[in-house]
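Memo to structure team: turn this sequence into structure tokens by end of day. - J.P.
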Amino acid sequence: MMVTDKQVSVRQACKIVSLPRSVYRYHRIPKDDSALMEALEELVKKHPTIGFWKCYYRLRRSGHQCNHKRLYRVYKLLKLNIRRRITFFQENSRWILQVRGVAIAKVPMPFHGAGGR
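Reply from structure team:
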């Protein structure tokens, strides 16, 4: 740095390199989202088929104060924004719901008539 090597003041050094002094003195404060990450992981583990907005509203109702942009950043960090395929298939006259290839629940589906599923 010019300040320590050349014995120039911070003001003069910043003026020479056209840098505002506020940028020179800026220290980034890291964001602590660990509580939000844990709550989001627990919620998605409990309800694997809900999307981002349902997660957002459920976390808000449970008392987590965060805006949707912050939550979406954490949501993407945890790689939850990947589109989930939900499929139903019939096995032994029972319908099985699959999310990401893992059987979640065996649910008897009602008959919808000749044109139903």
